[in-house]
Amino acid sequence: MLTTQQLIDIEQLQKECESHDHVQLKLNWEMLRERTSDQMDYLQYEHGELVAFLGLYAFGSAVEVCGMVKPSERRKGYFQRLFDHAMEHIKRSGYKKILLNAPAGSDAAKSFLNKQGVKYAFSEHQMKW
């Protein structure tokens, strides 16, 4: 279960990343707020500041991975460490499909995904009214 302060920190980090990268991150806020355990969230704090976040969102036998790193703290291995811990949890939990969610306009996300050797599968589109 995430604390109120952790939720505030995640929201602040999201705003900073979205502003810097000109993207919209999908963090499934309803699920984050309703967590009953902290096994699905990975947070990296440095000097009291949240610098990286990774959340897992289970949908049946599939799990979606979403996350972000503070722009000034990228290329320091924070997200890779969180991702490695999350992958251990995913393997133990027996999920059949892993979906890595990344905004199309994020060069940092593309770089990370290329490094992982994953293949592009599909895009989601968001409709606004």
UniProtKB/TrEMBL annotation:
All copies of domain N-acetyltransferase, residue ranges: 1-129
Alphabetized InterPro entries for the sequence: Acyl_CoA_acyltransferase, GNAT_dom
Name assigned to this protein: GNAT superfamily N-acetyltransferase
A Pfam match: Acetyltransf_1
Organism from which the protein derives: Paenibacillus lactis
